[in-house]
Amino acid sequence: MPKATPATIRKRYRDAFFMGLATLLPAVLTIYVLLWTYSFIDDNIATPINNALKAQLRATAAGREVAVRLFDLDPELLRPGHAGEFAAALDEAFPGWIGLGAAIVLCLAVGFFIASFLGRRLWALLEAQLLKIPVVRAIYPSAKQITDFFIQREEEKKERFSRVCYVQFPSPGQFSLGFVMADGLRGIDERQGRRHLTVFVPMSPTPVTGFVMLVPEEEVHPIDLSVDEVFRFYLTAGLVVPERHAVGEGGGAAPPALPPPTPPPSPEER
Q1: Domain at 181, CATH number
Q2: pLDDT tens per residue, range 132-186
Q3: What is the C-alpha separation between 262 and 49, in angstroms, rounded?
Q4: Quick check: is 208 in a domain?
Q5: 61 is in which domain, residue-wise?
Q6: Which residues contact residue 242 at a Cβ distance below 8 angstroms, ignoring those fewer than 6 apart?
Q7: Structural domains counted in the chain
Q8: Residue 38 lies inside a defined structural domain of this protein
Q9: pLDDT tens-digit map of 226-268
């Protein structure tokens, strides 16, 4: 057994530390995101709903009587001159989960309504009116893109991003993952004498933004990746790679090089 040297001991402890960090960090980040999401919903949705409900209960005599019966408060608090004590007792007895439950019910109701034909039409009209407001017009589309990215179902993402590909970008010999969005523009196809495709190349670490390019069809190469795998690749700045595409330590034979881009035809060839 070889004798342990200070260098090998340091390496062993360093490797153990990073292995432990790599094991624990995903779970810690997941818990943090879940707790942050709960805190955000509780602070910005549930708490305002709770405050509104408590304000309604305090506003009228009938509401105060309902609160006394529901939350088993002292009936003496209903007498004149006890408004402050009643408010404090109501705040203490009011369950915080009511606002969260009401928020969930509200999301379900809005979701079912928007899923209907009438709901979609009314929401489209409302969005059209919102986009006419200068300040809202500058914020709302970006906010909608971000929420759509995190909440959209896989089927909806596949419909929007029709095909995963890679192209030579930003320079020849350098490659970026992207999505084939649609066919190119007729004017460019006719002028260049070949077919183009519209390709969206996301940016890291915010893949909801990126570059839209018209790329010659023969320079757009398919690759066996899903939409979510491409987004995870960009979100993590290339750190998260599907196992089937990971390059092992042995490496293996390099894949054959791609042929150089096909030059556009000369005016005489057209």
Answers
A1: 2.30.30
A2: 888 888 888 878 877 776 666 655 555 556 689 999 999 989 999 999 988 899 9
A3: 61
A4: yes
A5: 6-93
A6: 225, 229
A7: 2
A8: yes
A9: 888 998 899 888 988 988 988 865 444 445 555 555 555 555 5
